[in-house]
Amino acid sequence: MVVAVLSAGLFAWSSKAKAEDGARKAVEKVPAVYPQIAKANRIKGVVRLEIVVRENGSVKSAKALGGSPLLIGSATDAVCQWKFEPAPHETTEVVQVQFGD
User: Fold this and answer.
1) What span, in angstroms and rounded, lies between the C-alpha atoms of 42 and 72?
2) Would you place residue 58 in the very low, low, confident or very high pLDDT band (cuts 50, 70, 90)?
3) What is the CATH number of the domain that holds 8?
């Protein structure tokens, strides 16, 4: 499985994003901001999102498949700004955003 990893050095804790082996590659990834309340309470974990990517590579929609409710919003906001390589049709991808170590 090929995975892409993105590290965000915005806070002392990191946020990492992984695209699972899907049909399309992400060409631009916006890092997720670690929510202050989650950071203060030392909440870590993975948010798993199912996204629909338009033909032009922009994200049409995102649905949480799992993760802490305190982290889902930030992960969704970031992933909705990602850009993927163009394709002849919409695709559905599953991505993960890691918060914490």
Assistant:
1) 15
2) very high
3) 3.30.2420.10
